[in-house]
């Protein structure tokens, strides 16, 4: 059992974050044991079948026999808007002694041969190689899906914020995972693989981070960094889900195809202008114009959630969609939305 003790000031510093580096590292769990992650099976098979320039065996050698990752790969994010390249720069500056210590901690029965050979060149060369390979893995295998990944993670953060507002800390932590509960002024995490452990936040803040690539809560054991609690995100299936279904021809004629697609997208869940822009592949300005028309017609409404305004269909909008339901799409439904090629900075989230 892990016990994390808070005082009143610590609770005031509780925050959420989404980290591109963490998702890149955590994705190794799904690659190392694809049968344990059926929601990501199609993705993991595609990576293994066509890894490109990525040294997948080297990356998989980081995963310990108990499926732990070295703590230096999952530092607590510095902000809610971390940029992947900035995270890589921070990773490249991890002290060599810390790298070796964390690798030996997760490989307590001895380092795998692939890892030993990589370390023969020296910890500094190994770390530079590792940063290079994590960057390549992210660019090739995660960046094409990052807009969807980010949308799912940010939607989870909004949901947890609503739970905190509605029911306080107890409701928030109860919603994260069955292994987590709030008692008195302490957070208890049932994690038998880590044994008995107690941590005090002590004014360092506590960060909660949703992730696609986790089956349970995980918690870095490094006591030098502020507590970081990673938990499975809600709605992870939406990352690999079909794109927005095409509305029926009749609904397109009635509303205009762009507004009909927008209404169909909102039927899948509340979304902000930015999220709708990404999903539909149009500018935020165009989305705003179409939303204004749909709102004036009484088909959708917008409600503020933090810094964002989330839109959802009203009853009349839902009835229109039901009356003009399009036939199910085929074939191409599972194909992820394309992105432009080339290296670009991956921004951290804009959290509401």
UniProtKB/TrEMBL annotation:
Against Gene3D superfamilies, the record matches this protein to: Winged helix-like DNA-binding domain superfamily/Winged helix DNA-binding domain
Q: Does the keyword Transcription regulation apply?
A: yes
The UniProt entry, under Pfam families, shows: DUF5937 (PF19361), HTH_5 (PF01022)
Q: Where is the HTH arsR-type domain?
A: 239-333
Q: Which CDD domains match?
A: HTH_ARSR
Asked whether the UniProt record includes Cytoplasm among its keywords, one would answer no
Query: Sorted alphabetically, which InterPro entries does this protein's record hold?
Result: ArsR-like_HTH, DUF5937, HTH_ArsR_DNA-bd_dom, HTH_MarR-typ, Metal_resp_trans_reg, WH-like_DNA-bd_sf, WH_DNA-bd_sf
- Name assigned to this protein: DNA-binding transcriptional ArsR family regulator
């Amino acid at each position: 059992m892990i016990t994390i003790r808070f005082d009143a000031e610590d609770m005031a510093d509780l925050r959420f974050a989404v980290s591109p580096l963490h998702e890149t590292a955590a994705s190794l769990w799904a690659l190392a044991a694809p049968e344990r992650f059926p929601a990501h099976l199609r993705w993991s098979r595609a990576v293994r079948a066509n890894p490109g320039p990525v040294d997948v065996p080297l990356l998989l050698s980081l995963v310990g026999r108990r499926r732990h990752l070295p703590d230096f790969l999952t530092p607590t994010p510095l902000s809610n808007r971390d940029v992947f390249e900035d995270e890589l720069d921070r990773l490249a500056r991890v002290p060599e002694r810390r790298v070796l210590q964390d690798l030996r901690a997760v490989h307590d029965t001895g380092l795998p041969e692939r890892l030993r050979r990589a370390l023969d060149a020296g910890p500094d060369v190994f770390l530079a190689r590792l940063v290079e390979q994590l960057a390549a893995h992210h660019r090739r295998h995660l960046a094409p899906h990052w807009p969807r990944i980010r949308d799912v993670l940010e939607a989870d953060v909004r949901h947890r914020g609503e739970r905190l507002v509605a029911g306080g800390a107890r409701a928030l932590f109860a919603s994260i995972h069955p292994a987590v509960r709030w008692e008195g002024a302490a957070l208890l995490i049932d994690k038998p693989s880590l044994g008995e452990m107690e941590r005090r936040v002590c004014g360092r803040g506590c960060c909660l981070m949703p992730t696609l690539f986790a089956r349970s809560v995980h918690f870095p054991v490094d006591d030098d960094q502020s507590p970081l609690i990673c938990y499975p995100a809600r709605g992870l299936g939406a990352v690999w889900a079909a794109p927005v279904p095409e509305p029926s021809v009749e609904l397109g004629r009635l509303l205009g195809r762009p507004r009909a697609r927008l209404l169909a997208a909102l039927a899948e869940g509340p979304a902000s202008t930015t999220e709708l822009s990404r999903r539909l592949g149009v500018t935020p300005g165009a989305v705003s114009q179409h939303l204004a028309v749909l709102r004036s017609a009484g088909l959708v409404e917008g409600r503020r959630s933090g810094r964002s305004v989330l839109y959802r269909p009203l009853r009349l909008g839902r009835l229109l969609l039901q009356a003009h339901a399009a036939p199910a799409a085929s074939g191409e439904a599972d194909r992820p939305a394309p992105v432009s090629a080339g290296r670009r900075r991956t921004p951290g989230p804009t959290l509401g």
